[in-house]
Write a structure and sequence with these properties.
The protein is mostly helical. It is globular, with a radius of gyration of 20 Å. The longest helix is centred in the C-terminal third of the chain and has 27 residues. 73% of the residues lie in helices and 0% in strands.
């Protein structure tokens, strides 16, 4: 139960916005909305929250990378939500849920940059990426992220363990694992402090478990391992969908993205307004941005309508097979 009135107002606002988001439990409607030119897609999505960001950030039909499209949608949506936060003024704990959600993208970009020299980042700007690439010590990374107000509490608590090390001395896999563990621990603590339901906490637990499982599934697929063995922790239905999707790289990544979303959304979608509502909304936005960034990429790159229909239709059928 939310105590502060401002929290209740904000979470009710979030509930309303979630109904203006492309939702996975309405896949047939999504199929009807997906059109095959950018102007017609904009028109079809006018009643949805994302339409303002689509028209503002992606006005032209320039063939941008999918990562860039996702990034533009994410940052525009975050900016709009933070404007609403400044107006409603929910508690710091509620705001921290959003901060933690955004910190996932910062962490993923950071690990990608220092491990492989990643250039197509989702959240970090090019100037920050270049600075990260020239950094020699972990302490420099920490200072840079702090100056840019990109250093969450969960990231700070881990990076301070490495602050005296050179980046070349860091085991990036271990660092990534510790950052994920710290993120989920902090998220659980914040949600408990906001009286999240047992369903919300179970959702976070599944998200945490699935992060580890995703790595194992990808490793098995890339290395030619047995996916059935890697997927033993999943239900029979989930295993069947993963195996079916493994024949296509895009389908495989799509299923890895929607499996935890389906698990959580099924539990939280009908729950009374609470911090669980915010958790559900954040996951719904991930689904929406993933689907739309891919569709817009295909449209603006000039893929024929038949191929787009085939791609989108296959994704929707995969989701329906999970939900059956």
């Amino acid at each position: 139960m939310v105590v502060e009135v401002s929290d209740e107002v904000f979470l009710n606002y979030v509930k309303i916005r979630s109904h203006k988001t492309l939702r996975p439990d309405n896949v047939k409607r999504i199929n009807e909305l997906i059109t095959y030119t950018f102007p017609s897609l904009l028109s079809a999505l006018q009643g949805f929250e994302v339409s303002s960001c689509l028209s503002r950030e992606l006005r032209s039909a320039l063939p941008l990378p999918q990562t860039t499209i996702y990034s533009k949608l994410l940052k525009c949506w975050e900016s709009e939500l933070r404007d609403r936060i400044r107006l409603i003024k929910p508690s710091e704990k509620v705001v921290e849920v959003l901060d933690l959600y955004i910190s996932k993208y910062v962490t993923n970009d950071l690990v990608g940059v220092i491990s492989t020299g990643l250039t197509e980042t989702t959240y970090l700007e090019a100037q920050v990426v270049e600075s990260l690439k020239t950094a020699k010590e972990v302490g420099e990374i920490t200072s840079l992220l702090a100056r840019r107000k990109l250093l969450s509490k969960s990231m700070s608590s881990v990076l301070k363990e490495y602050r005296k090390l050179k980046i070349s001395e860091v085991d990036v896999n271990e660092l990534s694992r510790k950052l994920r563990a710290s993120y989920f621990k902090r998220l659980e603590d914040v949600l408990r402090g906001l009286n999240a339901s047992s369903y919300g906490l179970r959702c976070v637990e599944f998200l945490k478990e699935f992060e580890e499982l995703k790595q194992a599934l990808r490793k098995a697929l890339i290395g030619g391992g047995d996916l059935r063995i890697a997927a033993t922790k999943l239900t029979q239905k989930q295993r069947d969908v993963v195996l079916k999707a493994s024949k296509n790289a895009h389908d495989f990544e799509y299923v890895l993205a929607v499996l935890p979303l389906h698990f959580c959304h099924n539990m939280l979608k009908s729950f009374p307004v609470s911090v669980d509502t915010l958790l559900d909304y954040l996951l719904l936005k991930e689904f929406e941005f993933s689907v739309l960034s891919y569709v817009i990429y295909l449209i603006n790159t000039g893929y024929p309508p038949e191929l787009i229909r085939e791609e989108v239709g296959r994704w929707l059928r995969l989701y329906e097979s999970i939900a059956e």
